[in-house]
Please model this.
Amino acid sequence: MRVLIINTSERIGGAAIAAYRLMDALKNNGIKAKMLVRDKQTDQISVVGLKKSWWKVWQFIWERVVIWKANKFKKHNLFAVDIANTGTDITSLPEFKQADVIHLHWINQGLLSLNGIKQILSSGKPVVWTMHDMWPCTSICHHARECNKYQEECKCCPYLLNGGSEKDLSNQVFHKKEKLYQTAPITFITCSEWLKTKAFTSKLLKGHSICNIPNPINTNLFKPRNKQEARNKCNLPTDQKLILFGSIKITDKRKGIDYFIDSCKLLAERHPELKEKLGVVVYGKYSDQLIPLLPFKVYAFNYISNEKELVNIYNAVDLYVTPSLEENLPNTIMEAMACGVPCVGFNVGGIPEMIDHLHNGYVAEYKSAEDFANGIHWTLTEGEYETLSEEASRKVTACYSEGIIAKRYIEVYNKITGDHA
Model:
């Protein structure tokens, strides 16, 4: 069986990493998998990049122009929504023609337009779409937050200036998607039960198959290793407890940086003895901006994409924290837990499905810096750390390892190819 995985980027972003890992997992389990991307970052021969051209750059710009115009020429949420009005027709590519299954992932920002998806559906090839956020089941947003209009009809969009209108851009795209999804069956896969619940309530996805399959991870690579050796490799101190916080862009407000700063200040106020005993490791763009904002010693790294380096970073720390405000099934939590590192995160999205409260980490009350601080302190000083660490690693091996996830996807592929036969 030949599967073509389609994602905007090869390695940048959570969806890209998950899609790439799925390709590897499938290949290791007998499936001929390839990946088609707009942005290719490695020399991996199984990944095919679209030819670069000024036209593709213009397509990306044009989509932003339409959104900008809908917002009365304001930058308000310019990159928080996508309308898929431009993209590439991939149906003529040899990789597409050779594939038995077309597997969509995150396809926004100029990779596929709604018309391009229509051409894929019209080809008659069975289509699987893994949802890494809510965009496939809403009109234009990736996270609906408190809005539930997608359950009936998107309009008066809160992402548009002044709340949009009855016939705003979100309403127009909603009806285009509604018409598109009626042309052929799509098997939708959500990475978390949280997202599956959201998808089931969407009017757009009624009548389509929806199931939950988590992202995979290579547990032969991401696994517990010697902490002292890992710290030496990363040039980190051996006489402190270390907390890790990482993101592509540290200053991204959606990643909850403000709550993390507040929780660290609370920790330092309530437990002044930690000021010397605790350090914070940060990786990501603008990580050095955290140095003057935290009451603890900060060890700043740039964004790390090399997985072997990531394994060392995880194994060098005692705790991973993710104060993110919008999440599906974070790869970072999975990576940390696989390395035996307990995690603290907010009760949002798929996070409470990964972190079992007080069993392998701590699930804090949403948007509560105080409870987040409690979680950090409990995990490092009150919980049975060795047990937390062992349970974290065991959870990932049992639920997210490559072989388990690949098998579940292969079952889906076999079913839909049989249905199309």
Remarks:
- Residues 402-420 form the longest helix (19 residues).
